[in-house]
TrEMBL record, chains A, B:
Coiled coil: none
UniProt-listed InterPro entries: ADH-like_C (IPR013149), ER (IPR020843), GroES-like_sf (IPR011032), MDR_fam (IPR045010), NAD(P)-bd_dom_sf (IPR036291)
Annotated source species: Sphaerobolus stellatus (strain SS14)
Domain of life: Eukaryota
Name this protein carries in UniProt: Enoyl reductase (ER) domain-containing protein
Entry-linked SUPFAM superfamilies: GroES-like, NAD(P)-binding Rossmann-fold domains
Entry keyword Oxidoreductase: yes
Length: 348, 348
């Protein structure tokens, strides 16, 4: 069969703000493919059905020297991203012609293991969703739905009656988070960027409270409808900072993106790294820990001391009347070692 | 027996910066106690041996309207805090005369259930530590040692060969964290506020690297000796922010104080709330979660959709050549619903 064009969207140059199609990405139709004869090498050939553009892809279009959670894309190669493909030839016994696969694909009409190393390893066989067109698959089964569902299961620790706040609540991922949290019995507060999306959140998704962050401050919305037990953060920066202040004790924050900083509009300290490096952060207080760890603690510490494995150092002050002064000097970091005020002789 | 004076340190007024003894706290000797006849009500009477001033107490000296993790102290009442007491009379069969108890006590030479409601419930029987004076008890068995040991056990997830950074490493709590982490096989980087303390950290505690944060920036120290897998944060503010940037993927940050903000010198966003409300914060990424949650996800989502419990919404764009434009508009939040680019007909 005669080769036919297999156009691609190429990564052409590193964007500084929002990417500019035609400059940072380029549609290129110089490549050709012979659908009948392209070697499959035990794999399969697919026809692209859907491409699912997703925010995280922006992170890949950066100077490779910058560290992040997604590997940097290489200039001149085709863009890759989420999508749905249909199998049109196969040498893999587990994959049949006509199967639909979702996962990471490259931006072109056809792909095979021979032309795209990314393909097969990231693809999962999927079925049409009940009552939905195929176009519903990237949202529900692609990274938005997957991340929402798994993130809540692994880290959300959702309890009926709690309150969750979801930023970018009307987005593909946010609207999944809102609905899954609601199904788990939580009160849902969501923010989004237009009044039309606020209406969608209230009337279609059915969240309890929604607001437009461009006209209502996060702080005032959460003052009214909070406090919150869970914050699903897709935004980072100032929104994350504001949400922290409205958390209940033992709240969970799921940092899942920082779209406010992807395109260089804003830099807010280093909070974005909490997401990029999947850092877990725990506020800790002794009284929370004593019920579980009180027993083993005494045992181990006596042992460590007896074995000479633990050094201690005291800054000793004498007399009750000096206790407050000793404490202020401690706050000022004036002395070395644990400040201890001797009030009376222990041996007496 | 004749009553004898039982002086106290009273909480006199709310401090604005560092507390001023004589102004914010006052030594008062107007109270008397009859050691032989004070009613014990089934409890016991103790003589104070040691008082252990601790930084967290500062948090209690605030306007009661402000929320925090420690309850606010009431003006005019005696200061309370950590300490060691010896039992001199007892009606409680579990507590013998001569026993030593550590915990929260009030700042006065004697206390009983009758004169101090705090006493008994917060006190734990302790023994002298092997090879140590009684003055070592507040550091090792009091809140510094307890918090260090339990915090690392519960949240540290320490692995041999990892690197930990400890701020206020020469402090009572910090030096415990350094040593326990080292015993667990971690490389330890510690910061402190004087060259004398740096020397102590290196020569006595034996940490791998120590620096004086007043003369060396956290950022440059961690650039040299990091990256880090665990950050034990006693400081908050700018130090926490800097440490976040030097974390490895899946690092743990244990937020255990924010001494940089206790005395109002500095306010750094809302990071302090992570400690005050024991917030757990997780950076999350889909690919970390798929191995554990991939199976149950598909099952539950198909079920939710079949039952009509999950709403989906798509913003549909046609043609591969429009995929990059669709993606940029997604980054700009221009549309409602999951953006999907239809490249070919799924039914074909």
């Amino acid at each position: 069969m005669t080769p036919i064009p297999n156009p691609r969207i190429l990564y052409a140059s590193i964007p500084t703000g929002y990417p500019i199609p035609g400059k940072n990405t380029k549609y290129d139709d110089s490549e050709q493919i012979d659908l009948e004869n392209v070697p499959l090498k035990g794999g399969y050939l697919t026809r692209t059905v859907l491409i699912s553009p997703e925010p995280w892809l922006r992170e890949r279009l950066r100077d490779p020297i910058e560290v992040s959670c997604a590997s940097p894309m290489r200039l001149g190669l085709p863009m890759v991203g989420s999508g749905l493909v249909k199998v049109i030839r196969s040498e893999d016994p587990k994959i049949k012609v006509g199967d639909f696969l979702a996962g990471i694909i490259r931006a072109s009409p056809y792909q095979s293991v021979d032309i795209d190393a990314w393909g097969p390893s990231w693809l999962t066989k999927v079925q049409k969703l009940p009552g939905k067109d195929w176009t519903a698959v990237p949202g529900v089964l692609g990274s938005p739905g997957t991340t929402a569902w798994m993130g809540l299961k692994e880290y959300g620790d959702l309890k009926k009656g709690e309150t969750i706040y979801v930023s970018t609540g009307a987005g593909a991922l946010g609207s999944m988070v809102c609905q899954l949290a609601q199904a788990a019995g939580l009160k849902v507060i969501a923010s989004t960027g237009s009044d039309e999306k606020v209406k969608y959140l209230i009337e279609v998704i059915g969240v309890d409270y929604a607001f437009n962050y461009k006209t209502t401050k996060v702080d005032s919305a959460l003052s009214k409808w909070g406090p919150i037990d869970v914050y699903w953060d897709n935004v980072g920066g100032e929104t994350l900072d504001a949400a922290i202040a409205h958390c209940n004790v033992h709240a969970r924050i799921l940092a899942c993106g920082y779209i406010s900083e992807y395109n260089g509009e804003e830099k807010y300290g280093n909070l974005a790294w909490i997401f990029k490096k999947r850092i877990r952060m725990y506020g800790i207080l002794m009284s929370d820990l004593v019920p579980k760890w009180g027993g083993p603690f005494f045992e181990e510490v006596y042992k460590l001391l007896a074995e000479g494995k633990l050094k201690t150092q005291e800054h000793i002050v004498h007399g009750l009347e000096n206790a407050d002064k000793a404490w202020v000097e401690l706050l000022q970091g004036k002395h070395l070692g644990k400040t201890v005020v001797v009030v009376s002789n222990p041996e007496a």
